[in-house]
Design a protein that fits this description.
This protein has 248 residues and is α/β, with parallel strands linked by helices. It contains eight helices and seven strands, in the order βαβααβααβαβαββα.
Length: 248
């Protein structure tokens, strides 16, 4: 575990999935005060929302230094937004590629809306850094995962709120295999095991079977991406990626 490098506080957009679990560990390694925020927009993988508390509790138990830095958790209700963006994430539609070439799990502007809500909360909580798990290397084709979109949103939030927020995306340039390597670099095998056992990424919300890469249906896009990343990391003999080598 590395030393803190910042004195300000951070708010992690925290779903309870693999990516946000690693982002939470990354923020706890870096900032003296870290709070988390989740969003209930009617997603059908609501089991992921339940995983949030399990991840937070086990992380505090396994890493006492991080426990001292882990602050409040916030849950924001956004079901009205979920109704607008009715997709395979919130309805009973099949997972498929739409006419626009985007997966049916795409919720239009979801990350942009999340960041606006998170920034408003951060403003009131005195936090100046927003941390998100957006990634444009191994991702599902969502346009609001690109760093260009995040940079534009950061500028808009700072102009519109007269603030100096930073939006940090430590996974932006990493493959899913490298995300597992970063978990090991942050918290060793203990954090890898925590991520495998407690985090949840499956779009179908299935947790019946523990697979080598964690729980899930094994066939939805999220499971396929997670499995491919884990298998790639293991095939490389489980390398370590140190947090200092990651661009925020």
């Amino acid at each position: 575990m590395g030393p803190m490098t910042e004195t300000t506080g951070a708010l992690v957009l925290f779903s309870g999935g693999q990516d946000s679990t690693v982002c939470l560990a990354w923020a706890l390694d870096r900032y003296p005060r870290v709070e988390t925020v989740g969003f209930d927009y009617g997603q059908r993988h609501a089991v992921e929302l339940q995983a949030r508390q399990a991840v937070r509790a086990r992380m505090a138990e396994a890493f006492p230094d991080w426990a001292a830095r882990l602050g409040e958790d916030h849950m924001l209700e956004m079901r009205g937004f979920g109704a607008i963006g009715d997709t395979a994430m919130t309805g009973e539609r099949a997972f498929e590629i739409t006419a626009k070439g985007l997966p049916s799990t795409y919720v239009p502007g979801r990350n942009l809306v999340f960041l606006a809500y998170a920034a408003a909360l951060a403003d009131r909580r005195g936090l100046r850094v927003l941390v998100g798990g957006m990634c444009e290397t191994d991702f599902s084709g969502y346009p609001d995962c690109r760093r260009e979109a995040i940079d534009a949103m950061e500028r808009a939030l700072n102009l519109g709120m007269a603030q100096d927020f930073r939006i940090e995306t430590p996974l932006m340039r990493l493959t899913k295999a490298e995300t597992w390597a970063l978990a090991k670099g942050l918290g060793g095998e203990a954090l890898v095991e925590l991520t495998l056992e407690e985090s949840h990424t499956c779009y179908r919300g299935e947790r019946d079977v523990r697979r080598p890469w964690g729980y899930g249906c094994g066939t939805c896009p999220a499971c396929e991406l997670r499995a491919r990343g884990y298998e790639g990391w293991v095939a490389q003999d489980r390398p370590v990626l140190r947090p200092g080598a990651v661009e925020a």
